[in-house]
Amino acid sequence: MKETVGPDRELAAWADGVLARIDAQQGIDDELLAALGRGPSLREETLARMAEAVRAAALGLGPAGCAAAAGVPERLLHN
After folding, report:
1. 48 CB contacts (<8 Å, ≥6 apart)?
2. Which of 1, 22, 54, 75 has the greatest count of CB atoms below 10 A from its CB?
3. Taking the model in full, what pTM does it have?
């Protein structure tokens, strides 16, 4: 198996960093809602997922990455 070097390694590290920041943001959002003593409404959850997909697209991720960031199947993202 070939080890990634140069730009491929940098791109992989960048993508890992992007996904880590997305995960961290979700954790912060969950903690805030828990502190408020409630869970998100369906509307809030949908808007948050849409925002995550747009943010991932702005960071240069493709459709599969945007869907993963939003926590939805790629097919749903296309709809």
Report:
1. 29, 40
2. 22
3. 0.56
CB-based contact 67:53 (threshold 8 Å): yes
Question: What are the tens digits of pLDDT across the range 35-44?
Answer: 888 777 888 8
What are residue 71's phi and psi, to 5 degrees?
Answer: 75, 30
Enter the tokens of residue 77. Answer: 């993202």
Cβ–Cβ < 8 Å for 49, 72: yes
DSSP label at residue 30: H
Tokens of 56: 């991932």
Distance (Å, rounded) from C-alpha 26 to C-alpha 8? 27
